[in-house]
Write a structure and sequence with these properties.
By secondary structure, the chain is α/β, with parallel strands linked by helices. The protein contains ten helices and 14 strands. It has two domains: about 140 residues, NAD(P)-binding Rossmann-like Domain (Rossmann fold); about 160 residues, 2-Layer Sandwich (Dihydrodipicolinate Reductase, domain 2). The strands form two sheets. The chain has an eight-stranded mixed sheet.
């Protein structure tokens, strides 16, 4: 498709990642796959310096440190925290969600902390994390990075500029074959699909529309993936009688990559945006992102060239915003723990809705 950038769109779209005036060093608590696949590549692209790493598996930490030119790998968490405290570093936490609340009390009061999603395994754990951050006066964020992907940033800027009018329909649809075996820890989770995947989409919808009033949801197993708690979800986020907001995911579509789908669509009274999120398609090989939009100008659908993707570019945003917040406490940090807790509240409502069951159909005369 020919790529056409209208002058109006060019004026409002700027997807360059946020950066502080002075970059703080980073210490990594956890060196698992998400760190090597996304955190470290993103920080390298942005120019941040990672000065220390720790993992429960010391050999893994040493290997990652060597591969990424991190000066020191630590076998003890306390030693890494000592380094981070002395250097005024940001603590980048990427550990199992159930362990977050055990780590936060060990960090220095007033520190900068970025925590990989989800914000705990349950709403109770999320509340405990939020309480700890408040008590210790941490400048803390949760790494809900999809809202920071360049294509999402562009869509939000177009929406905020009024280019597509008043939004009345938002849809996230995933039909793919996800190789869950790449994340063995997920096989032990009672809450899987929504808490570890659709949570991204719920958070993205909140980024565009704000807090929903209620949810209608069902999350379920797949007959070929019965060892996983859930792999498919249907979620309606209730924003009243005019706005429709749906999240639909099916991670068991194994009938050829060319029929897989992953898109985020926003419709307004003056136009619409449809984004193909390529990284999800035929994972981990992936496909291309596509950002298409139509405005009420008679020119039809066109494609906007967007530089960067979800992995790893989106991971620059939560860290850059956190460091800007540390520089300027008045800065509106969109990945704050306060905002992330509200995403966790919606996730909890989805699980409650799924468990409570639907309204039975009465077929009696």
């Amino acid at each position: 498709m020919e790529q056409i950038n209208t002058t109006t769109v060019d004026k409002v779209v700027d997807t360059s990642p946020e950066k502080p005036k002075t970059m703080r060093p980073i210490v990594s608590i956890g060196t698992g796959g998400i760190v090597t696949d996304a955190h470290l590549p993103a920080y390298k692209m942005a120019g941040y310096s990672v000065i220390g790493a720790y993992d429960l598996n010391p050999e893994k930490a040493s290997e990652v440190a060597a591969n990424w030119n991190i000066p020191t790998a630590y076998a003890k968490l306390d030693d890494l925290i000592t380094l981070g405290t002395a250097e005024g570093a940001v603590f980048d936490i990427a550990v199992p969600a159930s362990e977050i609340a055990n780590i936060l009390p060990k960090l220095p009061d007033g520190a900068g902390v970025l925590i990989q999603k989800p914000m705990g395994e349950s709403i109770e754990q999320a509340a405990a994390i939020l309480k700890l951050c408040r008590e210790k006066k941490l400048t803390a964020g949760i790494n809900f990075q999809l809202r920071r992907a360049p294509f999402m940033v562009a869509a939000k800027q177009m929406l905020d500029a009024g280019l597509i009018g008043e939004v009345h329909d938002v849809e996230m649809r995933v039909v793919c074959q996800t190789p869950w075996n790449l994340w063995s820890f997920l096989f032990e989770k009672e809450r899987m699909e929504v808490n570890y995947h659709s949570i991204h989409y719920i958070d993205a919808v909140r980024y565009f529309l704000g807090d929903p009033k209620a949810t209608y949801a069902k999350t379920m197993k797949h007959p070929k993936m019965m060892e996983l708690a859930q792999t498919r979800s249907s979620i309606i986020l209730d924003y009243g009688d005019v706005i429709r907001a749906n999240v639909s995911t099916n991670h068991g579509h194994d009938y050829a990559p060319d029929e897989q789908e992953c898109f985020f669509k926003i419709e307004g009274t003056k136009g619409a945006i449809k984004i193909q999120i390529g990284v999800i398609l035929n994972y981990p090989k992936g496909s291309v992102d596509k950002f298409r939009y139509v405005l009420d100008d008679g020119k039809g659908w066109r494609e906007l060239a967007i530089e960067g993707s979800w992995f790893p570019e989106a991971f620059m945003g939560p860290m850059g915003g956190l460091q800007k917040k540390l520089e300027d406490p008045s800065y509106n940090y969109v990945n704050s723990v306060e905002d992330a807790y509200r995403t966790m509240c919606v996730v909890e409502a989805c699980y409650v809705s799924s468990a409570s069951g639907a309204t039975p159909v009465n077929y009696d005369l």
